[in-house]
TrEMBL record, chain A:
GO BP field: transmembrane transport
GO cellular component terms attached to this protein's record: plasma membrane
Subcellular location: Cell membrane
Species: Acholeplasma laidlawii
Keywords: Cell membrane, Membrane, Transmembrane, Transmembrane helix, Transport
Record-given protein name: ABC transporter permease
Entry similarity comment: Belongs to the binding-protein-dependent transport system permease family.
Pfam families, sorted: BPD_transp_1
TrEMBL record, chain B:
UniProt-listed SUPFAM superfamilies: MetI-like (SSF161098)
Keyword vocabulary terms for this entry: Cell membrane, Membrane, Peptide transport, Protein transport, Transmembrane, Transmembrane helix, Transport
Organism the protein comes from: Acholeplasma laidlawii (strain PG-8A)
Origin superkingdom: Bacteria
Its membrane topology: Multi-pass membrane protein
Protein name, entry field: ABC-type transport system, permease component
GO annotation, biological process: peptide transport; protein transport; transmembrane transport
Predominant localisation class: membrane
Amino acid sequence: MRNYILKRVFLIFITASIIIFLVFVFIKMLPNYHAAVLGVDPEIRKILEEIEGYNKPILEQFGIWVKNIFTTGSLGRSLNRARDVTAILADRIPISLRLNIVPYLLSIPIGIGLGIWAALKKNKLTDHLISIGVVIFISVPTFVVATLLQYFVVYQLKWLDTPFVLANIDFAENIARGLASYAMPVIVMTIGSVAGLTRLTRAELTEVLTSEFMLLSRTKGLNKKQATVRHALRNALVPIAPSLLGGFVSILSGSLIIERIFRVEGVGGIYIEAFNNRDYPLIMGYLMFYTVIGLFAGLIVDISYGIIDPRIRVGAGKR
Amino acid sequence: MNNINVDKSKFVFTQDKGVIYDEQLKTKAVGYYQDAWSRFKKNKASLIAFIILIIIILMSVVGPHLRNYDLTSNSESRKWTDRLKEMPPRISGLEWFGFSGHKTLEGFPARFSILLTDPNAEGIIIGDFSQPNAAGMVKVKVDYYKYVDYINSYESVFSLSIKEYNLIKAYENENPGDKIIITDAPEVNGTYKVQIHFFKFLEVVYGHSNQDFWFGSTIAGDDLFTLMWDGLSVSLIIAFMVAAINIIVGIIVGSISGYYGGTLDLVIERISEILSGLPFMAILTLLLLRYGNTTWIVIIAFTLTGWLGISALTRAQFYRYKNREYVLAARTLGASDIRIMAKHIFPSTVGTLITSLVLYIPGVITSESTFAYLGIINYSNAQSFGALLSDGQSRMMSAFHLVIFPSLVISFMILAFNLFGNGLRDAFNPSLRGVEE
């Protein structure tokens, strides 16, 4: 197992390095990169050239960039915010995390619960209702759900006075109002992940429920409930648990769409801003962060698969 | 045992002469696809979804041509569209269904009392005034089309170019009694400052025959109906192109690496592993930053890593079938590799591939519209659904139609694609029926 994990970590490291290098070179080669990044102020220009080596070849710049990450923790200087990208990301991650953690925690019991319920009542009315709900919520795009929710809650029913999440200053001023403003994004995100989780749980459980060992466990004297809880559920959760762990890592990178709709100052929000302002160092920093998080989430999923179910070792060879 | 006495004569041979042969089946032979189709037909939800899909796809082709709205295409008429912004939806015959062209306006009572006294403004105000709010404003329901015509005809003075003025004069000479100009004025520096019947003027000079905006008009005074189907056709073209390219590349790469295996497979696997680590968002934004916002760049971004999934699927299917007996038999008979791949293995995998293709298209549409909503994808020639919705969102308090129509259409379309895909999967692979819903 240890060797397997080490091998996976090493492979992820290689993949991440290649991807980050490719992105770095591609960004550096954008036509108006230098003019945009260096700006007109000769003093800043000089400092930047010194720290980040803008006058050197791209390969060397990549070396300097990587070296800076390890020596000073710097990912480069953002143009628009005139701050270090690392500092900006560090500011934003807690905000994204705070917004994402509640839907994540809420969706697990609800999603798995609904999935189990649907699987146990397969082809009955309950199952059909849940399945219809799942198909609808998987199909309707997040921005549609969020926009309609905003319209009805804020403009029609007037339950809330703003369609956006309050910024930190307003939040401190009126905590109750601030918390209430989190309700809509939390609902939208919860609905989205519940639908996916319900579908997965229902699919896995219905498959397990028809397998032979269920018959065996009934034969040896367990009643239906015991057999389901002790045997079926345990086996059905094997493929679900790793994806939950991976999902936890992914919430770090925030949600572009939710943060845009509800004007949350999170990691995803900063990326849209960086893209619109052509803030190349910030784009680079975010893409690197996003890539690493994505790969890391994949790694966690694969490794936990191996731990939870030793039969599955992704890429572990033929042994 | 009871002894039952039965009269022997009651026993009769059913078949005492002749031999029974196997009878020829009277049913028709049912092929793989016929079988799938007959199973698909039984799934009512999928069948309805299929019909809805066909309607939506047809609309994306004919929709933009149903309205001859070209005020915005012409730079001279463009300046008038501003006065037609955020018109509520109106379809004659469907007034009862919310397409009445009515709108609730808010303002000071004095503003509306003019409308009540002026005989030219007859029929504009429909509902009663509400109670004044803290600022003294009231709400009133108006026939917005009449309202717009009224304020532009009687409360505004336009600067007409000589060309526009002459066109009106020519029309008035041809149709005496049908006046467009309310108060005339002489030419000053190439313009006429006159009062005109606004809708009549648009009709005569620009051919905008006072038509209704079926789905209302946008902030810029565009016809939302036309714009929506235009945007939809762009989305659909992208989705189908992406799906076609991905499936072709994916099948070719997947079948080669699955069929030959070995080193080739190993190399392809490593390459796809690195490619699959590249976030789609990174690819899309980098390509857009480098090559600009065009449909082709978006298609390339979607296809750069999009084929990986289909390739992996095809590879797995080829691994599954390549050592079957019938493949061995074909090889023994001297069939070439290409023939075995195309004629023997591929048909066994086609059901899975069709299903994954149909379920892949809504995914492309969703992420295309999501990135358009975020403003990252932004075509110059058309507005994608996401962009329409994003524009409408800022004005949804006063013009909800800008949000609801695009929302409904895109949601129904993706829902229909998903239901259709699920139905196809059940039809092609009955053993999986309902497993993944």
